[in-house]
Amino acid sequence: MLANAREDRVFSAAAWSVGTADGVLDRGLLGTRAWEGPPVGEDSLWDLASVTKPIIGLAVMALADRGAIEIDARVTDYLPAWREKAGITVRQLLTHTSGLPGGTPLYREHPTREALLDAIRVGPLRTMPGTRVEYSSQGFIVLGLIAEAAGGAPLDRLVAGLVTGPAGMTATGFTPADTERAVATENCPWRGRVVRGQVHDENAVVLGGICGHAGLFGTLADLEKLGSVLTGGAAPLLKPRTHEAMTATQTEGLALRRGLAWQGLDVPGSPVGTDLGPRSYGHTGFTGTSLWVDPDAGRYFVLLTNRVHPVRTGTGIERVRREFHAAAVKLS
């Protein structure tokens, strides 16, 4: 099925894995790092895009386990200068109910880190906090700043110390030094080149590539490790009760199911279809990536592609994701 999707030019490369806490059931790689490029391999780095968000969420919840963050505290408890956003809580940032808008190309008018962060700080809310789920990268940008303030370290060091290091994800991080290993993404009009090894998201570029909403690169093997850890209950990353709270629906009564940094299984409307169990949780990335976990089946599902190569306008990944998960749940 994935080979056929490549034939249809949905992506030039794909990697996938289905497994349990005890090991892999099925995995593979196919295609090339770019059209007419070298084959993908085990060491290929994938732009995880918004799969970064739940990894930042894991770091935030690890800080909560250590008493450094209180998830019902307000933004100004950690960022005193952000008085304009004093009514927003950490929980609302994690559940995309902060009222901060989503999908805003701030980089076009705010080309420096300071200017972009100021635009978020003073910009209007779309809705009152806590009243609506609206997917917001701005919210996770703020969450990354809160993690740095509470954790007393830069975000990349916090992620390494609290998530990727304990999970054994040795190849995952921000701003990779070896860009030749990276799978190509878009032929970007803004940058005037095919992007390889730099984060695809333009707002993340302006922020320096290390931020709460996007920017992580990782290998298939590393995503397998994270999937296995989550399927096994998230130790040693989180306490059991913290993992349970993080993956439970926090948005009852609102239109979309959200945990703490995780997306729940919406029926209809889930990007991975409806074949996974009702307690499933996960996240997708704009570049064509995803990680999902079905706790009742005891399985994780990883799909990595570069569906934005060479342009972001293709729509085939929606079908591919649904078909992939429908096939993966049937593995014995």
From TrEMBL:
> Could you tell me which InterPro entries the record lists for this protein?
Beta-lactam-related (IPR001466), Beta-lactam/transpept-like (IPR012338), Diverse_Enzym_Activities (IPR050789)
> Is Plastid among the key words of this record?
no
GO molecular function terms here? hydrolase activity
Is Protease among this UniProt entry's keywords? no
All copies of the Beta-lactamase-related domain together span 13-320
Which superkingdom heads the taxonomic lineage of this protein's source? Bacteria
- What keywords is this UniProt entry annotated with? Hydrolase
Looking up Gene3D superfamilies in the UniProt record yields: DD-peptidase/beta-lactamase superfamily
Query: What is the protein's name according to its record?
Result: Beta-lactamase family protein
The organism that produces this protein has a lineage beginning with:
Bacteria, Bacillati, Actinomycetota, Actinomycetes, Pseudonocardiales
